[in-house]
Amino acid sequence: MNIQDLEPNVVFKFFKQILNIPRPSKKEGKIINYLLDFAKEYNLQAKTDKSGNVLISKPATAGKENLPTVVLQSHVDMVCEKNSDVTFDFDNDAIQAYVDGNWIKAKGTTLGADCGIGMAAELAILASDNIEHGNLECLFTVDEETGLTGAFELEQNFFTGKILLNLDSEDEGEIFIGCAGGRDTTGKIAYTEVASSENGTALRIDVKGLKGGHSGDDINKGLACANKVLNRLLYPYFDYIEINKFDGGNLRNAIAREAYAIILVAPEKVDEFKNHVNKFEEDVRYEYRSTEPDMKITVAETEKPETVIDGKAKFSLMNCLYACPHGVLAMSREIPNFVETSTNLASVKMDNKYITISTSQRSAVNTSKDDATACVSACFKLVEAEIWQGDGYPGWIPNPDSPVLAIAENVYKKIFSKKPLIKAIHAGLECGLFLEKYPGLDMISFGPTLRGVHSPDERLDIASTQKFWLLLINILKEIK
């Protein structure tokens, strides 16, 4: 079945169009132009601000003119991740999406349903002539995935509504009223290239087949971090190896799925090391048997590199990666099964004589976020790494007395004959930044079910999209 033929047809028609438009973070020009052309086609008012955020306004339907203005919001950019064996240009290629049972998936890349499906729902409402609503302002923000830039730089009075529906959540049946804040911490270890040993054997070790995923939503699911796995494998042979390359992960908000190293092994240890790799794979696969069934670790001889990193850099890299925390640091003491604080050892890259280790910390409690950041920074300081820290972004403090939450709860119970779950989310949402600029906002966040977000396993549940759509249009209808 073609995606545009799925129900709700009006949503999936626009979702298919969005899939055809490249929209990497910080390169959103094509999708911005698409939105402005859409506004012209439907005779709607549109404007942009200096950062590229787009606001499209639509007048109320007959009889609803005096209702409060509602802001619908989603972000336009997508995480660009692909499997290492896939050739794909995110700057120019359309996402190759397909229907697989009850899911929409992409061929070897991220799908971009985060937050493309939220965008599609907004466009469907803007294009409709039979959905009841008051005055609407549809806000499309840029660069959510790599820096929340659009939310940070959102101009005062860019929109006027006092009710905001964020369409960037990923679990149908759950309505979110709070989120964690976050901050990035990066360490840079300087290295010098030195001549490799004449008699060393060059090997390439690959860790692959991991699920990866969203560093907020999936951090508590027991998934492996490829960077930690690879370093753990190498560590027992610290005295017998030289490192030419260590590369793993890509994005700060994605759990590393793949990592590889090119090393030289002392000749007397080659056979022993190969056996070690095989035994290590057996052991670590058993440890992650329920969460990483497709994990694979391979070792193969490769062309001998002329240079390796110096001994001090090797010491700093391997010890820093081992000491640097990854995963859940604290669970909430008040909210059952809610991750309060976590850190993600996102990526390790070598370039221009520096090894760059990128991490991100999240917490619903600002002081705990600062503590997690200091913990990671201490690991970098111990190896004399250069440290860079982002400004971070605030959390969204839950408001259980939200009027629009009460409306959404009642609508959900009326349509689906059961209560939705009211939750806070460990992932970061733009809502905390909106609240700083617009203190009177009444906000909730909801969406259809997505899985494998920020990885090539990303998929959108089709049936949940229909429920998401019904909830959205009925909330608009019930606002008094």
Would you spell out the secondary-structure blueprint of this structure?
Elements: H1 9-19, H2 29-41, E1 45-48, E2 54-58, E3 70-75, E4 97-100, E5 103-106, H3 113-127, E6 136-141, H4 149-152, E7 163-166, E8 174-179, E9 181-190, E10 193-195, E11 201-208, H5 226-234, E12 241-248, E13 259-265, H6 270-287, E14 296-301, E15 307-309, H7 311-323, E16 327-331, E17 339-351, E18 354-363, H8 366-382, E19 386-389, H9 403-416, E20 421-425, H10 431-437, E21 442-445, E22 450-451, E23 459-461, H11 462-478
Parallel strand pairs: 3-6, 3-7, 7-21, 8-20
Antiparallel strand pairs: 1-2, 2-6, 4-5, 5-23, 9-18, 9-19, 10-15, 11-13, 11-14, 12-13, 16-17, 17-18, 22-23
Helix pairs in contact: 1-3, 9-11
- Overall CATH architecture of the largest domain: 3-Layer(aba) Sandwich
Report the CATH C-level class of the largest domain. Answer: Alpha Beta
Unreliable stretches (pLDDT < 50, length at least 5) are: none
Number of domains: 2
Structure summary, number of beta strands: 23
The tally of helices reads 11
Report the mean per-residue pLDDT as an integer.
96
Which percent band covers the strand fraction?
Answer: 25-35%
> Mind telling me the CATH superfamily name of the largest domain?
Zn peptidases
Structural class: alpha+beta
Percentage of helical residues?
A: 25-40%
CATH topology of the largest domain: Aminopeptidase
Strand ordering within the main sheet: 1-2-6-3-7-21
What is the rounded Rg?
Answer: 24 Å
How far the N terminus sits from the C terminus, by CA atoms, comes to: 39 Å
